[in-house]
Each structure stands twice: as C-alpha cells, then as structure tokens.
Write a structure and sequence with these properties.
- The protein is mainly α.
- It has 4 helices and 2 strands.
- 16% of the residues are buried.
- The mean pLDDT is 87.
Length: 74
C-alpha cells in the first residue's frame, strides 16, 4: 500500500484530490497521516485510503465517487 501512495502516478490520491481537498503525509514506517477540512472528511479519507489497499483502478474510481457523494450529502 505504501508504494501505491508514494507513487507519483497514484490513482487513489489523484482521484481523491479532485473530489476533496486534503493534506497527507506518509512516513517511511508506513504510517499515513491525513487531514481534511472537517473531522467527518478526515475520517472518510482515512477509511477510503485504508480500504483501497486491494482495489484496482476501476474500483478506486467507484470508491472515490461514493465517498465524495456521501460526504457532499452531509
């Protein structure tokens, strides 16, 4: 998972960044820190990132769309 996030071609981070503004820091110890505009967004981003570990590109696209839709409805 760490290598997928650190990649400059990270599908996950590119799609999330188009939907939600956030800050992310990835440590070499595999820890990931994420910060959204609100607690709800931060939790949703954290769950989305951890849940995307085994997803392919199409599944990532669908997950980000659902995540964005669910947050915009709040």
């Amino acid at each position: 998972m760490l290598y997928r996030i650190l990649s400059t071609q990270s599908e996950l981070l590119q799609r999330l960044g188009k939907s939600l503004p956030f800050e992310i820091a990835v440590g070499l110890n595999s820890r990931i820190w994420v910060n959204g505009r609100s607690t709800v967004e931060t939790l949703a981003l954290a769950h989305g990132i951890s849940g995307a570990e085994l997803l392919n590109k199409e599944q990532v696209k669908q997950m980000v769309r659902k995540l964005s839709d669910s947050i915009s409805g709040i």
